[in-house]
Amino acid sequence: PVLQRSYTSGKMASEFTKVTLQEGDGQNYPKDGDNVSMHYTGWLYDESKPEKKGDKFDSSRDAGRGVFKTRIGVGQVIQGWDKGVPQMSVGEKARLTIPGHMAYGSRGFPGHIPPNATLIFDVELIKIN
Q1: Would you call 57 a catalytic residue per the annotation?
Q2: Per-residue burial over 9-39, b = 16 or more CB atoms within 10 Å of its CB, e = otherwise
Q3: Which is nearest to 36 in space by CA: 46, 21, 49, 24?
Q4: Which helix (H) or strand (E) holds 82?
Q5: Is 7 a catalytic residue?
Q6: Of 104, 113, 120, 122, catalytic
Q7: pLDDT at 22
Q8: Of the listed 29, 57, 68, 109, which one is catalytic?
Q9: pTM of the predicted model, to two decimals?
Q10: Is residue 128 flagged as an active site residue?
Q11: Is 45 noted as a catalytic residue in this protein?
């Protein structure tokens, strides 16, 4: 796998990183405006936890959810996804560490994600529709 380091200060990662967990086909990459189908699980970033995964806040793999479909690269999802998913090929599994300014920013997501929180997502790109 491709390993990248993220340098942190306090409990936040200041840089976006993508680490490949499982290689994809290496040929089919989504372009801005493409519809994609993917699975994801998101955690709050916490340096004190294994793999820096704090509390889980959302997952398409939870019972009754199913595959998540969206357009990528056009601002329909957080900036970190718009940056990370187009770097993935079909079948790839990757871990995206997304600093707060590329996630939900100062507004956070009340009840789930604190303001300026760094997030970790394990993402699987299933197909480009």
Answers
A1: yes
A2: eeeebeebbbbbeeebeeeebbeeebebbbb
A3: 24
A4: helix 79-84
A5: no
A6: 104
A7: 98
A8: 57
A9: 0.89
A10: no
A11: no
